[in-house]
Amino acid sequence: MIRDPESFAALQDTLRRFVRERLVPHEQALSDNDEVPTDVLAEMRALGLFGLSIPEEYGGLGLTMEEEVLAVLELGRTSPAFRSIFGTNVGIGSQGLVMAGTAQQKAAWLPLLASGEVIASFALTEPGAGSDAAALGTRAQRDGEHYVLTGTKRFITNAPEAGLFTVMARTGGKGAGGISAFLVEAGTPGLSVGAADRKMGQRGAHTADVILDACRVPATNRLGDEGEGFRIAMRVLDKGRLHIAALCTAVAERMLNDALVYALERRQFGERVAEFQLVQALLADSQAECLAARSMVLATARRRDTGEQVAVDASCCKLFCSEMCGRVADRAVQVFGGAGYVADSGIERFYRDVRLFRIYEGTSQIQQLVIARGMIRAMEAEQ
Ligand code: COS
């Protein structure tokens, strides 16, 4: 749903120009320096990028899902590490609060997240619990008006920058029903962040361990009821997967654009390589897949805006768009040939950056599992 087409078109135009004029020229520096330049960060804050999905009453832009997807289709046409710095505030770091926070919790944190003054992280994954998130072992022991949290979280995006963590921890017995969610402020005694991970790509976006060592958190910081944490995390991920699917689509469109530009410049056998049918096949397959991805993401976002349950379709989008993006990256390197394998072209960096899409916010195999389970459930319900 687009609420006000005219002002939304103006926002899209602003984002398009911001990406082209302010982010694309900094792509190599982002990778070389492993950080988003501070002036770019300030511009992101001023544009409201940290609060895209946060309701307007808390200072965000309150975008609908369709609007958010369209915004990401613009913002994703550059190195994905740029999106990562505000991505957790828009997605997994804020949406638990939006969905399950009390009025007090929302008032305390959402304005700070919307403005980008505070960065939010989502701490679910652990050394022994990745895809099997319900097996997490971090404990939260009730002690009067507090909970005492102990455990280690792994690969936590933006942990080194975060001011607020949504931590999933076990308050009850085994499995999903024993998990609760907590808001934990950076600086709380007992919470520490490990060294940033050395990753394959997406330099400029940081992940690290978050260590909780008898970290005392007021009981008022629990998000939702005891035992509700896993379901909150799953609902947050349902929305996040649609956002990531849009991101995959945008990066694929960018890589395809670069491949086409190159194919029109590069000459071999006396002709532009874009004239060769075997190169055209690489371009055409990528174009068809980008269109399919864009169409499914937009259609699913629109249905979500009407209140439909789209968890299974969001997994379809994440699965198809992330795998598609990997195929487009591979073809783009092929179109560039030798130039695609060396760092200078930029396409080599994108190839490494996009590998993460098939892994984070649920691997392709977890999306397949969610989709197939949903199909079986729907068929059984009919019988
Ligand atoms: N929305 C709301 N509730 C959900 C849900 C969703 N999308 N998915 C599951 N639930 C609920 C179930 O209804 C069930 O509740 P009840 O016990 O009340 O019936 C509970 O959560 C447990 O669900 P389920 O039995 O399906 O859990 P499993 O452990 O079998 O598996 C998967 C769930 C594998 C889908 C989940 O662990 C997952 O998504 N793993 C990947 C985690 C991930 O994406 N990590 C990325 C890092 S975080 S950025």
Secondary-structure blueprint of this entry?
Elements: H1 5-23, H2 27-33, H3 38-47, H4 65-75, H5 80-90, H6 95-100, H7 103-115, E1 120-123, E2 139-143, E3 146-157, E4 164-170, E5 179-185, E6 191-193, E7 207-218, E8 222-223, H8 229-265, E9 267-268, E10 271-272, H9 277-305, H10 311-336, H11 338-341, H12 347-353, H13 364-382
Parallel strand pairs: 1-4
Antiparallel strand pairs: 2-3, 3-7, 4-5, 5-8, 6-7, 9-10
Helix pairs in contact: 1-4, 4-8, 4-9, 8-9, 8-10, 9-10, 10-12, 10-13
Bound molecules: coenzyme a persulfide.
Coenzyme a persulfide binds at residues 92, 122, 124-125, 131, 133-134, 176-177, 230-231, 234-235, 237-238, 311, 360-362, 366, 369-370.
Question: Your description of this structure?
Answer:
This protein is an alpha+beta fold and 383 residues long. Helix content is 52%, strand content 15%. A hairpin with a 2-residue loop joins strand 2 (139-143) and strand 3. Helix 1 (5-23) runs parallel beside helix 4 and helix 10 (311-336) packs antiparallel against helix 13. The longest helix is centred in the middle third of the chain and has 37 residues, at 229-265. It starts with a helix and ends with a helix. Residues 92, 122, 124-125, 131, 133-134, 176-177, 230-231, 234-235, 237-238, 311, 360-362, 366, 369-370 line the site of coenzyme a persulfide. Residues 92, 122, 124-125, 131, 133-134, 176-177, 230-231, 234-235, 237-238, 311, 360-362, 366, 369-370 line the site of coenzyme a persulfide (COS).
